[in-house]
Amino acid sequence: MVWRRRRRDWDDEWDIFDEFFGRFRIDDIFEKMMRDIEEVFRKAEMGEIKPIVRGFSIRIGPDGKPEIREFGTKPTIRDTGIEERKPLVDVIETDNEVQVIAEMPGVNKEDIELNATERSLEIRAEGENRKYYETVELPVEVEPDSAKARYNNGVLEVILRKKTPKKGGKRIKIE
To answer: Among 22, 60, 79, 96, which is most exposed with the fewest C-beta within 10 angstroms?
Structure first.
């Protein structure tokens, strides 16, 4: 008798799942997904859209320096002939400073322009074949005059000192 009662309770639990998931028609969702995929392939065959495949390969050259080569399709850029990209950026905050690391292969150190404010860092670079632009919002206020930057092997590193609050405060007169 106890077994039947537990079994019946378990069936009741499954009824709740059946009721909830019964609202979703998995077959309908799958069919819509397949229709969308077929539509993309149809557009690609008609030339309305082109698939984008992109990547980088890195290998060490004979001189011991890394060589970064790009492969894949690129969208055509009509105005300048150079595609503007966003660099891959990491922001690391320590106790006293904020470090911004940006990966920008294919440009020279002389092609990079940096502008810092207390809350953001603007990165702009225009090389012979590549153009990068990004405005990085900083997690805390920094002192823009303290900025130090290095660029080596396609990696830009900018270190900014955090702004320190003034100590002491203002004396308040009691009336």
So the answer is: 79
* Structure confidence by residue, pLDDT tens digits, 80-128: 555 678 888 889 999 899 999 999 888 899 999 999 999 999 999 988 8
Same domain, 147 and 102: yes
Taking the model in full, what pTM does it have? Answer: 0.52
Q: Are residues 98 and 39 in the same domain?
A: no
**29 and 92 assigned to the same domain:** no
How far is residue 49's CA from residue 72's CA, in Å, rounded to a whole number? 15
72 Cβ partners below 8 Å, 6+ apart? Answer: 52, 53, 54, 55
Q: Assess whether 85 and 42 both reside in one domain.
A: no
